[in-house]
Predict the structure.
Amino acid sequence: MAQRDRLLDQRLERTDLLAWLREDDPARLAELWAAADETRRRNVGDEVHLRGLIEISNFCVRACGYCGLRAGNREVERYRMSADEIFACAHEAEAYGWGTVVMQSGEDYGLKTEWIAGIVRRIKAETGLAVTLSLGERPDEDLAVWREAGADRYLLRFETSDEELYRLIHPDLPGRVSDRFRILAKLRDLGYEPGSGVMIGIPGQTYESVAADIDTFRGLDLDMIGIGPYIAHPVTPLGDHTWSRPVAEGEQIPSDELTVYKAVALTRLACPESNIPSTTALATINKVDGRELGLQRGANIVMPNLTPPEYREKYEIYPDKACVNETAEMCRGCLSGRIETIGRTVGTGPGGRRRSGQA
Ligand code: 5AD
Ligand code: FES
């Protein structure tokens, strides 16, 4: 039996995932890409759904070791979008025929619970859009209020399943232990479609731990799984090497694009029905055809940026982000071209979670 067919049939155990992450034979990798692409086609089809990203605030109370928006960074000018600016973006998404808007921010308690709820209610009342929130580790009560207001999905990456590494790079707030797996379970209880994901190549992250990440996705039944390369930001403790966790020789997983494609492809095989974006971070490290290669190796979603130009460069999670100088209109044209060039179509409708047996 050809390798590809074996990959399509077989359940990949932790040891298989690990072997694939270390694989570097181009012929074998071609089989992995083909199997991931076929699994994507069979389970979520050829449509690429566009989800418009609105970066509503770059304030953040957290001190994540990898992120340029961390509270300690004085070099970034902080902003919060007004409600009217957010509605204008939502209407733009609708006019473009995109099915979903994603409102994302740092963990910003200046975004008052009721204010967000009002915005969600109005977007749901005025448009046919699905609303995804990605506002950090807010208290359960906030999550409940926003769900009640009509929010459909919530994104919260667990970043790495390696507990020790997570604790190092993601300090707790005083008196509150960060447990993103608990929050993901809570989101599901509240009726959200939860999304999550990881970075690949965090200093101190091993091949083993990424194999464990992919195995972990399987148990979480996620709507969306975002996987991007870790990109060093010089103003952060991980980026300027103030913090590190030593790992044994040969154990550090790289943050290069090939490794990200492997993780995306293996995640598609492990979670055939999930929505997997070809991420902006991937497009950042390969601006030529990173998006397309992600889409051809398991991904089926792109999240074009709707944030008004004057705020874009201030949402600097990592440096040199793709499309910072483009408008949504430009990305729209660019993405349609890229999607058509690889023989796929731009999706219509909200593009929510598909499950077996569901039309
Ligand atoms: N490199 C790549 N991705 C990053 N993120 C945060 N900082 C970085 C970085 N330096 C990702 C995290 C977060 C998402 C919004 O952006 O995974 O969940
Ligand atoms: Fe933004 Fe191509 S996707 S310019």
Remarks:
- The longest strand covers residues 47-57.
